[in-house]
């Protein structure tokens, strides 16, 4: 009975080829092939919970640089105030948008004698803006055609009397100014009135005291 069991145990070994026992490596290979892989329990594997993904933000658009040239807006200037003293007095006017001066008008007929002078009434009083003064300038037409020039043309900001124009006649004949004629120009100019300081010496300059044609013809 014991011999019969030994035969039954040795019978499966006959089916194995000697190559299966040729080396320890073969034995390990056989053992690896016949050994089932270990099973893992799903309960031991941690499950990672990721937050829901947010939609990607759209790519920011690059703003184009502002290439538009902006013009500086000039500040509003204080007005030139005019008061009419007579019915024939007229407010000064400008001949064009870029005219530097305001045309001044005669309030009555006036004769300018030959080689002489006379004051021409304008029939108005003015108040120039603070920081400026009014300069009476000649009109080119009177000077070139009739030899008429102006003089003594400074109007201070605090002067409130009638504006009169001093005309000189350099021709050999009398010249008559009619009521309503343009006799001069009023130009407003900015002024700078610093404090007056008396000093012992003045700062030297390249020109020095040279004057009256010292710089050449």
From TrEMBL:
Keywords: Hydrolase, Magnesium, Metal-binding, Nucleotide metabolism
Catalytic reactions on record: dUTP + H2O = dUMP + diphosphate + H(+)
Transmembrane parts of this sequence: none
Stretch list, region Disordered: 17-73
Domain dUTPase-like residues, every copy: 90-216
Pfam short name (any one): dUTPase
Biased composition (Low complexity): 40-60
Physiological role: Involved in nucleotide metabolism via production of dUMP, the immediate precursor of thymidine nucleotides, and decreases the intracellular concentration of dUTP so that uracil cannot be incorporated into DNA. This enzyme is involved in nucleotide metabolism: it produces dUMP, the immediate precursor of thymidine nucleotides and it decreases the intracellular concentration of dUTP so that uracil cannot be incorporated into DNA.
Family: Belongs to the dUTPase family.
Name of the protein in its database record: Deoxyuridine 5'-triphosphate nucleotidohydrolase
């Amino acid at each position: 009975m014991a011999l019969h069991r030994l035969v039954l145990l040795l019978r499966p070994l006959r089916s194995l080829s000697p190559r299966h026992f040729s080396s320890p490596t073969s034995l390990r290979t056989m053992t690896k092939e016949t050994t089932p892989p270990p099973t893992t329990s799903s309960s031991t594997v941690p499950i990672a919970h990721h937050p829901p993904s947010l939609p990607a933000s759209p790519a920011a658009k690059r703003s184009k640089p502002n290439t538009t040239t902006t013009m500086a807006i000039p500040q509003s200037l204080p007005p030139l105030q005019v008061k009419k003293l007579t019915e024939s007095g007229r407010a000064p006017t400008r001949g064009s948008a870029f005219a530097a001066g305001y045309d001044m008008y005669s309030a009555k007929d006036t004769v300018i004698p030959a080689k002489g002078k006379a004051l021409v009434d304008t029939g108005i009083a003015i108040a120039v803006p603070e920081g400026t003064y009014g300069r009476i300038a000649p009109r080119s037409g009177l000077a070139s055609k009739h030899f008429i020039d102006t003089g003594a043309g400074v109007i201070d900001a605090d002067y409130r009397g009638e504006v009169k124009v001093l005309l000189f006649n350099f021709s050999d004949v009398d010249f008559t100014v009619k009521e309503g004629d343009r006799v001069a120009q009023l130009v407003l100019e900015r002024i700078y009135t610093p404090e007056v300081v008396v000093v012992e010496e003045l700062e030297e300059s390249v020109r020095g005291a040279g004057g009256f044609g010292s710089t050449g013809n």
